[in-house]
Amino acid sequence: MMRLRRSHLICCAASKEKMAAHLSYGRVNLNILREAARKELREFLDKCAGSKAIVWDEYLTGPFGLIAQYSLLKEHEVEKMFTLKNGRLPPADVKNIIFFVRPRLELMDIIADNITSEDRHHSSRDFHILFVPRRSMLCEQRLKEQGVLASFINIDEYILDLIPYDGDLLSMEYESAFRECYLENDQTSLYHTAKGLMTLQALYGTIPQIYGKGECARLVANMMLRMKREFAGSQNQILPVFDTLLLLDRNVDLLTPLATQLTYEGLIDEIYGISNGYVKLPPEKFAQKKQGEGSKDLPTEPKKLQLNSAEELYAEIRDKNFNAVGAALSKKAKIISAAFEERHNAKTVGEIKQFVSQLPHMQAARSSLANHTSIAELIKDITSAYIIQCFPIKSHYVNTYIEDCIAQKDPLIKILRLVCMQSVCNNGLKHKVMDYYKREILQTYGYEHILTLNNLEKAGLLKPQTGSRNNYPTIRKTLKLWMEDANEQNPNDISYVYSGYSPLSIRLTQILARPGWRSIEEVLKMLPGPHFEERQQLPSGLHKKRQQGENRTTLVFFLGGVTYAEIAALRFLSQVEDSGMEYVIATTKLINGTTWIKSLMDRPESPTQ
Amino acid sequence: QLKESRQAVNNIRRLVEEDDDEDDVERVSWSGEPVGSISWSVKETAASSQRADREPAFPKISTDTPSISRSQSGYSLSSLFKGKPKVGNFQTFSDALTDSSVRLYAPELRKPKSEYKDYVSDWSPEETVQRLQQGKAVSLERFRTLQDKLLLLDHAIAAHDGNVITAVLIYLKRTLCKEVLFRELESRQTALRHFIHYLSETQNQRLLLELHRALGRAEDAALLQYKEHLSITDENKRRDFLKNCLSLPFSAEDLAHVQDHYTLLERQIIIEVTDRQAERGGKVEIFQKFPRKALILNMPLITTLYYCCFYHYAESEGTFSSPLNIRQTFKISEKQYFVTALAARAKLKAWLDVDALFASRNWLGFTRKKSPLSFQRVVDILQKNSAPTHVLQDYVALVDDGELRLTLAQKHKCHDIVISTYRDMKDRQLLLGYRGKVVRGSAEERKIDDLLSNPQIRWKN
Description:
- The complex is a heterodimer.
- By secondary structure, chain A is an alpha/beta fold.
- Chain A has helices at 7-10, 31-47, 58-65, 70-75, 105-116, 137-145, 177-182, 188-204, 215-230, 264-272, 312-317, 325-345, 349-381, 395-407, 412-425, 431-445, 450-458, 472-478, 504-513, 521-526, 564-575, 593-600; strands at residues 52-56, 78-83, 96-101, 126-131, 152-157, 163-166, 169-171, 209-213, 244-249, 274-275, 278-281, 303-306, 531-535, 552-559, 581-587.
- In chain A, strand 10 (274-275) and strand 11 form a beta hairpin.
- In chain A, helix 14 (395-407) packs antiparallel against helix 15 (412-425) and helix 15 packs across helix 22 (593-600).
- The longest helix of chain A is centred in the middle third of the chain and has 33 residues, at 349-381.
- Chain A starts with 6 loop residues before the first helix and ends in a 9-residue tail after the last helix.
- The relative contact order of chain A is 0.13.
- By secondary structure, chain B is mainly alpha-helical.
- Chain B has helices at 2-15, 22-25, 38-52, 92-98, 125-133, 146-159, 162-175, 178-186, 189-201, 205-214, 218-227, 235-245, 252-281, 285-289, 301-311, 323-330, 334-347, 351-358, 375-384, 389-396, 402-411, 415-425, 428-435, 443-452; strands at 359-361, 367-369.
- In chain B, helix 10 (205-214) runs antiparallel to helix 11 and helix 21 crosses helix 22.
- Chain B is elongated, with a radius of gyration of 36 Å.
- Residues 17-32 and 50-120 of chain B have low confidence and may be disordered.
- Classes of the chains: A alpha/beta, B mainly alpha.
């Protein structure tokens, strides 16, 4: 009854690191990708013979944490680890100092400062740099200008394009991808995407079918096909794991991330922000109050929790609509209580022994339940004013609502989400309305936000109405985006993830699987960018002979970001019994409306606002 | 349902109190990462090295790195160009790169065939681009003619690698005259965007403005220049800079906003100087009673209005700090003005001012309360500023919707309203029930008793 997958977390301090088991539960074993990344890391470390200290660009510890733990580094003689900062390096009796950094000029200046402050006479330490995810000529040039380039024995790159996040989820953690693609017209992130997909194909076989929608999708597919030609000669002999790749531009569906995600995981992300699989929560609800103890030392630091499918309870509830989480938790509580009650039935020594042996697992389950009950309580306390829902309302009411929100000085990002949502749904705003909003926003939040408003216009999130017809109602009706009676408890449609609104991106994915895009040609033409289909030739002998009833696997790649609610909707589709399709999700970055809009702002809000 | 699970959790906790040794189950440090994770170990190993050296052990060694913020965007390659690299010596890249050692690849994972031809030196544009992508030594100097250079650029664009496109652009920037470069970029939009991005990251404002002008993108150029004000900290310099911006070719609509921005800062500077003196002089009562917590400089307009409603409410329309003058100058909407003034006066508990805000006289000379805001919101604002019941009561009474009025009255303990509503509903039971909620022996209780014993009321129950 109580299979607890948490057990692998227990011994992470042990010398031999276990596999990240949750990565291999899914349809596709993503541990292979993780292992490949670890192998490369080990090889680099072994290149620097002898004892080592790593100096970390702090940002990288998050993504690297998904690949390896300290024990792996320790096995390869990493004795010390520091955070990169100006001044002299801390003392460490090691042969090698390795800098793990992003290729950014300001970090090069810090490294140069470290090296010039080093005591040349007493130190014979070797220096190395590992750039993540790529080397940059400009950075090396900067090191040269600072006169330290010659101090490095090794300069290398560690290509971390696609990071396995969970059993069915890959992310590049490339935060600025949307801004670069749609605002700055910089396609570097697409190049990395194509590279990442080539790596994936090297490990999991050539993907025979590629579909796509959007400008960026087209570019990525082109790059992949070209890179494949460059590999020509060395044919990939791996039996394909993925049947189909679907590339989707974020700007095909600008609306979805603007609404507040209403799944459990989505709300945690909206309210507290999940970063590299961790969330930081206000500590009050998590304090362990032992009996007789006062509340004197309540912790003040936020409580950090890891969230992934390794935790059985979380895997069960993460994708539920929040309104269904309470019931699931109380059901779980009953099961766990019953398990603990079993001890009264344990009479013989053997039975007691058995009970005791299960105790650690039961306690893990109990603490998991405690944590999620606390989180659910925290979320419940957040007022409904926080939620931005996507529903058909008369624009007159929307105008008044937004006006009131501004008058109340609600957070600017909330206002921007609302205004953009109104614009996207109506194919633009009336000139008068747009001018009014702009004026109110600038007066209330500061004139410098002229820049932000301009960016939103460039990205197409905000625009004045032109004479052209508003296609949105047609798109909405054809794709059944608004469902009147969403069943939150026992969903029968993907619209449950936004309590009645189904993400357009996922509807497109669903229709592609059945009955196919040909049925919605008209709507596809109304959405921005081309749609296309490509086939990649497989070597003979690698064509899959499908068993009857065997599911097909589609990799859906969201260019410019994906929300947890969209992921939940895809997981829902994978689980629908007769869908015949399972989905693995990849993206440039896991986003929510707030982080997304923030990435488009020219001067992020100060935290006090 | 949440309560159920909370209860279960607590029960079980008590049950297993004696062997609640959680560290055995889940090795997670309180504030942080699971024990053994990388970010946890960074702190651990750093701390242990400190201890070894008998230096005072700072518990959080890794926190003070203001230069690299965690929240900064990911490893974006197009944002590599922060700072001011010296441009113009691009050819040195090649010898910089030859220093580095042979690179190790994961076995056959990312190694296209073309990479084996390492010993040729006369690279075609295509090969050059590939080598640039692989971070290998390559010289661009052999591309001498304009045609060659453009061919190289087009190959770089086709590769979609921002790093490479930028590298080629830097070479072109050094070896071509501006006019030719701008002209050629105009027909290559991708390269153009990369060039713009590169110039703005390296803060080469002058060339950037020239570029925008040459391409007839006046508005972009204007916004770009305007953006620079964010990096000016001295308020007087910032004001002068904004004044200069007024001559830039903004769209009419943006120009109006920038004009307002300038006017606002100019005023804030004047107000700040005057008020600082008044505060130091110690003669103005309001500054003594409510010392200012922050400077008004660079605050948004509505915040400034609030400040003026707080400290300068009664001033005549002629002064810069008069709320009415600010409302006029910046054409603040009635609703915004109203909300702001209401909040500021309520904060000061100036209930007479609050009252006056609503006063409107009809042609017969009767006064009645009017508001551009729903009275529900008014009550909300007043209550947030801890208005006393007798003040709240007046506004609760004005809420149109009867049901809502009753709810608000109950919530804010406006007994009179509740009592008279029940009386009007002729609901004896409810009134009887409410009797238990008022203070014993109070005027309200007497009022209820009077009503209940009034034989003239026909109760419905």
